[in-house]
Amino acid sequence: MMPGISAVAFDLDGTLYPNYSLNIRLLPFLVRHWRLMLAFGRARNIIRDEQARLSQPGVPNFYERQAQVVARQLKMRDEEIREKIERLIYRGWEPIFLKIKPFAEVKEFLRDLKASGLKLGLLSDFPPETKLEYLGLSGVWDTALCTESIGALKPAALPFEELAKALGCPPEQILYVGNSSRYDVEGAKRAGMKAALLNPGFPVITGIKADFTFRNYRQLRNLMLE
Question: Which of 8, 18, 152, 185 sits CB 3.0–4.6 Å from 158 for a disulfide?
Fold first, then answer.
């Protein structure tokens, strides 16, 4: 057992399942709605920049602010854009997860962590509940949070601090597992957590260094539980 760890928390997208599985299935959608997706991505970067520049603890009405920034780019009404984002992205992508499989050994690893007495948490930049159900990964978490509902996207410290509160553990006793050095590792370290980076052989160029990296969940299990 890894000493000093009371809880293990995970990112979802690209961490519990391979990103390419989603990206391949999203190609027709991305081609059809490329202007919306470009504006959506820019809006989230703008919100992240605002968080960093203004030291905002969180956006009180995140979904309204996101729709406002997207609408300005597309010259559309805020209400229309918010409905489109909800219908096409949040609800529209969820059925795809019925066809996506988690990484090998993820389910077994989560069960082993739980059996060892560790608390399990999840923190995602997108709503996780339906995705987890479709991936067959629901029912094991002590808490599963969405950064958007908290009002601050990764790598802001606020969502990770809220995760620690929900888990009932000091941040230094939490290991956060993610696939992004820039968002997952940096955010976790800002909040005082330890961080593990899923790195299947690609070089990590930017961001704060993780406490350790791993190539697959068999390796992570051996590092943590043996």
Answer: 152
